[in-house]
């Protein structure tokens, strides 16, 4: 049974039970398995009536919604290749990716964005509004078109941290294998419960990991609740009361910083006990020991403080799942200390989102788990992680030379650096292309130093290490509230990070920036990663100033 056939069977089995919910205006609006199947059939009839056929590309450009899921399933069920795009990206970038994929149809609910696409691309294909797609009469659901393993089902564009985004083709075999792996891991997490999984989701479905979570939820006995307003994430979480949800490190780090600030503002004995307990927990993990008073504080906090905080994050939480970028060890330990496991996932779009997944029973802070069943991972001679197996994409859309380079020697070259321990548990240490090469010849991976600074300065949104072809390292720091973080505190954190580092890994100067790095400003990719080259170019004067000052 293919993944689509499994989803259709699951929705039919669910019948009148809810499978998807949207939170709108503080209330959850649900759709049952039968209702979702009917929506899928409406959309299939719409596409069929407009002459779309197997292999045609169809762009899905919209925020997460029940309709998004129905459109996605309908396109794949008709044999169309879905091209999901991020609606918050600049229209010019979106048009570039659409031209590259040459779609037969575009689905976009935003009439303003649709008009801008037509302005920038006079020859654009027809744009369909979801209101029109779902206006037809409901008909009896049909089984999906059967997909062979080599049939392409989606083209997901990479985030383009350095260069033009590329369309990653994923086929049915990739997704079939991945959903078997995620299903097994979620079974481990949830145990023998007969109740539906409660899942909350806020990350855009146009990202591979987010899409795999959607499909995983639809194949399982689950109720997936979709966020529709990131500014109300805390309220939405309280309404959803999930068992687990997928995160990026940025959110977990911000939540941790907010909790710590609330405790700090309240002050008193409880605050002292909390921070002493936190130190004790960290020391136990990092050094294997803690002082008597610290241990006493930890025991007290476990009984009197941590349960209240844990409940505020979600009374039913069994785990937080985290991917997209490395999570600081201190942040992972923070949640584990509260009694909430953080399960890390590592992968790329080209690996159908996942290469490794933490085992819920054996998660090690700072590591991302063992390779998923059926795939091989190893470290090449240059320190790069290479992977092969049924999760590896067949190639980039219409880019044979880049495909051949990425799959050289029969292995996918991830561009990531990593190491594996004797229990096959992986750790990601950096990106090859992000390596800073000082003019002394020393190579420095920026990520570990940036993460250490971020852990010591939770008020900072981003820390970007600079130094390529320079004599020493410096750092750009974004501080949204400049009055809340004096320069002396930044320097003290840098001094702590420098302590014990070899001379070439020590940060010698910093420059604070008031401007936040955002997707809209062009300094972050669509999934929140730093565009290092763009940042270096935009802040060239500030960077030069750090080196001129030091040289004077």
Description:
With 552 residues, the protein is α/β, with parallel strands linked by helices. The protein is 40% helix and 20% strand. The strands form 6 sheets. An 8-stranded mixed β-sheet has the order 2-1-10-9-11-12-13-14, sandwiched between helices.
Key descriptive features of the protein:
552 residues, alpha/beta, Rossmann fold, GMP Synthetase, Chain A, domain 3, 3 domains, eight-stranded mixed beta sheet, four-stranded parallel beta sheet, 19 helices, 24 strands, globular
What is shown here, in short?
The protein has 552 residues and is an alpha/beta fold.
Summed over residues and divided by their number, the pLDDT gives a mean of 91
Domains counted in the coordinates: how many?
A: 3
- Classification by helices and strands: alpha/beta
Please give the count of helices.
19
- The first-to-last residue Cα distance is 69 Å
- What composes the largest sheet? 8 strands, mixed
Per the principal axes of the C-alpha atoms, what is the gross shape? globular
Widest sheet, order of strands: 2-1-10-9-11-12-13-14
- In percent terms, what proportion of residues is strand? 15-25%
CATH architecture of the largest domain: 3-Layer(aba) Sandwich
CATH class bucket of the largest domain = Alpha Beta
CATH superfamily of the largest domain: ANL, N-terminal domain
Number of strands: 24
Oligomer type? single chain
Low-confidence stretches: none
Helical proportion, percent range: 40-55%
What gyration radius follows from the Cα positions, in whole Å?
24 Å
Give me the CATH fold name of the largest domain.
Answer: Rossmann fold
């Amino acid at each position: 049974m293919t993944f689509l056939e499994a989803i259709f069977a699951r929705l039919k089995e669910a019948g009148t039970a809810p499978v998807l919910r949207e939170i709108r205006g503080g209330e959850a609006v649900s759709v049952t398995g039968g209702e979702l199947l009917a929506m899928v059939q409406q959309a299939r009839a719409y596409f069929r009536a407009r002459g779309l056929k197997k292999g045609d590309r169809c762009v899905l450009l919209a925020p997460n919604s029940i309709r998004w899921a129905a459109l996605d399933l309908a396109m794949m069920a008709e044999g169309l290749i879905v091209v999901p795009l991020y609606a918050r990206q600049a229209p010019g970038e979106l048009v570039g990716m659409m031209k590259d994929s040459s779609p037969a149809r575009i689905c976009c609910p935003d009439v303003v964005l649709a008009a801008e696409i037509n302005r920038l691309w006079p020859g654009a294909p027809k744009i369909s509004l979801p209101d029109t797609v779902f206006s037809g009469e409901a008909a009896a659901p049909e089984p999906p078109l059967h997909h062979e393993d080599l049939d392409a089902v989606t083209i997901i564009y990479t985030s383009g941290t350095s260069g033009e985004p590329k369309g990653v083709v994923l086929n049915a075999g990739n997704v079939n294998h991945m959903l078997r792996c995620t299903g097994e891991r979620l079974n481990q997490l949830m145990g023998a419960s007969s109740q539906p999984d409660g899942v909350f989701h806020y990350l855009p479905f146009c990202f591979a990991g987010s899409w795999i979570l959607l499909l995983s939820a639809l194949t399982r006995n689950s109720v997936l609740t979709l966020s529709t307003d990131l500014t109300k994430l805390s309220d939405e979480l309280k309404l959803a009361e999930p068992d687990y949800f997928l995160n990026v490190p940025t959110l977990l780090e911000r939540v941790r910083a907010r909790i710590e600030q609330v405790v700090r503002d309240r002050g008193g004995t409880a605050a002292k006990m909390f921070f002493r307990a936190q130190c004790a927990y960290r020391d136990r993990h990092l050094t294997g020991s803690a002082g008597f008073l610290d241990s006493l504080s930890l025991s007290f906090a476990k009984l009197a403080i941590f349960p209240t905080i844990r409940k505020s994050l979600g009374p039913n939480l069994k785990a937080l799942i985290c991917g997209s970028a490395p999570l600081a060890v201190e942040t992972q330990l923070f949640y584990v200390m509260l009694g909430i496991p953080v399960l890390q996932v590592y992968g790329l779009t080209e690996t159908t989102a996942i290469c490794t997944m933490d085992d819920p029973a054996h998660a090690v802070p700072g590591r991302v788990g063992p390779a998923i069943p059926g795939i091989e991972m190893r470290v090449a001679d240059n320190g790069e992680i290479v992977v092969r197996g049924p999760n590896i994409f067949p190639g980039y859309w219409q880019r044979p030379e880049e495909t051949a380079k990425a799959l050289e020697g029969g292995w996918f070259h991830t561009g990531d650096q990593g190491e594996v321990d004797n229990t096959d548990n992986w750790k990601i240490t950096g990106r090859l292309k992000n390596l800073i090469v000082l003019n002394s010849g020393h190579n420095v991976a920026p990520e570990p130093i940036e993460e250490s600074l971020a852990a010591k300065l939770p008020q900072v949104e981003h820390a970007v290490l600079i130094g390529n072809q320079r004599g020493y390292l410096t750092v750009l720091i974004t501080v949204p509230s400049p009055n809340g973080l004096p320069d002396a505190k930044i320097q003290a954190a840098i001094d702590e990070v420098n302590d014990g580092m070899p001379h070439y890994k020590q940060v010698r100067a910093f420059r604070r920036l008031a401007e936040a790095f955002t997707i809209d400003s062009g300094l972050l990719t669509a999934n929140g990663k730093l565009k290092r080259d763009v940042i270096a170019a935009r802040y060239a004067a500030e960077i030069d100033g750090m080196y001129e000052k030091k040289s004077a």
